[in-house]
Amino acid sequence: MRDFFGPEVGPGVVLVFDEYLFANDPDFNDFRAFQDWRKQTGARYKYLLRSEHRVALQIV
After folding, report:
1. Residue 13's pLDDT band (boundaries 50, 70, 90)?
2. Which residues pair with 49 in a beta bridge?
3. CA 9 distance to own-chain centroid
4. pLDDT of the residue at 53
5. CA–CA gap between residue 40 and residue 54 (Å, rounded)
6. Does the pLDDT at position 3 exceed 80?
7. Does residue 42 sit in helix, strand or coil?
8. Which of 5, 12, 48, 50 has the fewest CB atoms lying closer than 10 Å?
């Protein structure tokens, strides 16, 4: 995910995930991929909106 996002994803950017906590493959979902990216980059974030499976979050 780090290579996918690139340097454009930084403070102020809003990301929307439609299957953040749900995936057919339990070993891969948006939450896990985002958390892996966050750990690699040290990025911080806050949740803006949440629903059952979808989230919008902002990089701070």
Report:
1. very high
2. 56
3. 11
4. 82
5. 23
6. no
7. coil
8. 12
In this prediction the pTM is 0.78
DSSP 3-state of 2? helix
Domain span at 38: 2-59
Look up residue 49 and give its DSSP letter: E
- Dihedral angle sign, alpha carbons of residues 59, 39, 35, 29: positive
Secondary-structure percent of the chain, ordered helix, strand, coil, rounded to 5? 30, 25, 45
**Gap between the Cα atoms of 54 and 8, Å rounded:** 22
Q: Output the CA torsion 2→56→18→41 (10° steps).
A: 10
Q: Domain count for the chain, please give it.
A: 1
Token pair listed for 49 = 């909106």
